[in-house]
Every structure is written in structure tokens, then in C-alpha cells.
# Entry
Amino acid sequence: MNDVVVSPLLWAGFILLILFLLAVDLVLVHKKDEVISTRQAIRWTIVWVGLALLFDGWLWWRFGSGKALEFLTGYLIEESLSVDNLFVFILLFNAFAVPVIYQHRVLFWGILTAIVLRAAMIVGGTALLSRFGWLIYVFGAFLVVTGVRLALRKEDEAPHPEKSWAFRTLRRVVPSTSSYHGHAFFVREGGRWIATPLFLALAMIEVSDVIFALDSIPAIFGVTLDPFIVFTSNIFAILGLRSLFFAVARMMDRFAYLEYGLSAVLVFIGAKMLVSHWVHVPAMGSLGVVILLLGSAIAYSLWKSRRDVPESEAIVEVKEKS
# Structure
């Protein structure tokens, strides 16, 4: 399927729209440091998902159903793979003891930077695939291996970003203090600027996003090579990540089997890329498989977590609801 013919003006318009939405979020909606409630986070998650669906509807009207289905499939893949990011965010916030009131600020600036980094990776990946078509098979094999490793990963292999070489290098290179100074990322002490733990947490979030992008961006290339669809689906998925974090952070233990769904999606997309020369999987087929795999993993996770709740806890939960 041919790429969307997008003028530079439309690219600029989309970027300005995203910057406007982020400015509204920071300046008007969350201009004060505050604890984001679950209800508020759910409302904003619905808003971001709604905006993505509206954009998808515009794509359908402007470029046809094929591109709209590609965007929706890519958006679902990127959003679901971002769930792994949420686990790392929780670990980082706990490791750096980031006060809940400042977590939204860290995620805001982290996602703003992630947009720039992912844009660069998408441009580079698209250029490489356009010049060296055989790289599609390399990406496909990489996704299959990553999916299998994710499925076989043991519970005790959970990442510890605060113990990584990246964090140790950051602490050596960037002078820092162990004390928080409000929501400041840097403070002036002894005549020089030094980083606060809030900046270190932000920097590690950026590192983790780059690492996860190495999986998610090749995955969407398995759906489409259209740079506009790849970029826009990525950005909309990232924009909803903050609200999704606060909406589900307290319920992450209920999605214990989601990783198996994600691993199956990676294997499916990787296999699709490996056989792309001989077998063409239509956009509707890819979307259906992705929804089936993720939906099954989520449904089983919720059913299993509900079934495993001790009887005493279940009674308390029922009383609280009543």
C-alpha cells in the first residue's frame, strides 16, 4: 500500500497540534503540583484515547480505510507495549522516592523529550528500510526473539534501572544532591548547579523509553512503513501514557499475564515481517489478531486475579462496594 502523501504543512500542523495539547495540559490543567487521582487519570485517559480515535476518523475520511486501520493497529501495539514502561516508571519512582505530587511533572517532561527521540528514531528507521529493504527481515527476527524472551522471562528477572550502568554513569557525570528541592530539576549549591533526584529520575525514564522504543518502533514497521502513520500512532500512544500510568498504577498486579499477550503480539508482527515477501496480511487481519491476543491476555489476567483473591479480602471488597 502506498504511503500517505503528506505536505510539509500538514506535518507542521500535526506537530503544532501536539505542542498545543501539551501546553494546555501543563499550563492550564496541571499548572500546580498535585496528586493525580485515579478518577481524574481515567478521565484524561479517555480524552487522549478519544483524540486518537478522532484523528483515526480523519485519516479514514482523508486517506481511506486502509490507512485508518494501519493507524489503529499501530496505536494499539504502541499503547500496549508501553505498559512495560509503566512497570519501570513504578520501579524508578520507588527507587528515587519521588513524591507522588511531582510524578506528573516528571512524566510530562519525560514524554515531551520522548517525542523528539522517537521522531529521530522513526526518521532513521524509515530511511534505513527505504534504502536497505532486507532490514525488514532483521527487524522481524529481532521481534520474534524479543517476544520469546519476554514470554520466558522469570519474575526474579525484573529490571532494576537504578542499578544499571546508565544510572551509575549518570551519577558520575552529573553532579547531584540526594535532597529534593520542590519540583526543581536543578538547584544552585556552593556556586554551581547540581541535579536533584527528580532530574535523575527523569533521565532514567528517558533511558528506559529509548530501550523500549527499540522494541516498539520495529513492531509498528511490521504494520506499515508509512512514516506519517508510524509517527502519529507513536505520538498518540505516548501522549496517553501519563494518564494511563496514574489510572492503572495501583492495579498493575492484576495484569500479570499481559506480558504473554505482548510477547505473542511481538512474535506475530515479527513473523509477519519475515514472510512479508511471500504472504500479505491485510490491515484488518493484523488488527484482529492484535485485539484477540491482547484482549485474551487482559481478560485472563483479570479473571485469574479475581479468582485468586482470598475469601476474606473478597468479603471486605464487597462490603466496601456496598
Q: What stands out?
A: Residues 311-322 have pLDDT under 50 and may be disordered. The chain has one domain: 8-321.
